[in-house]
Amino acid sequence: MHQNIGLQLSRLPRLWRAVLDRRLAPLGLTQTRWITLYHLWRLGDGQPQCDLARAIGVEAPSLVRTLDQLSEQGLIERRGCDQDRRTKRIFLTDEATPLLQQIDAVVNQARAEMLAGLDDDDVAQLASLLSRIEENGLAIQAREAQE
Length: 147
Fold this sequence. Notes:
By secondary structure, the chain is mainly alpha-helical. It contains six helices and three strands. A hairpin with a 7-residue loop joins β2 and β3 (88-92). It is globular and about 50 Å long.
């Protein structure tokens, strides 16, 4: 049983994103674009580009192209940082709001369907267990980085 957990944990994020990708495709959004917009919306305006990349789990240079595309679509704008001229902060535009509301509705519906059959206690326990597994993994990384 324990042998399959790693495989299940690796399959679930791909499945989750595939469901969302299919449902968000009619909005003209690629996975990279909707994930970037959604993270920025959840984190709040004015995120430094490097922090946004870290939150999404990509390298900062990889995010540049996506931000260029979102900027061309009029969904975000980059502004310089007063404290560090090398840093760019990312802001959502007013045009992004209706799109983000649509994304949020799709995400909430998909979440409800994916968690069907689980009650609030089940979801809380799942979240707790996943957090513990993540903490264990981070501890392993930190320990091995020191070796």
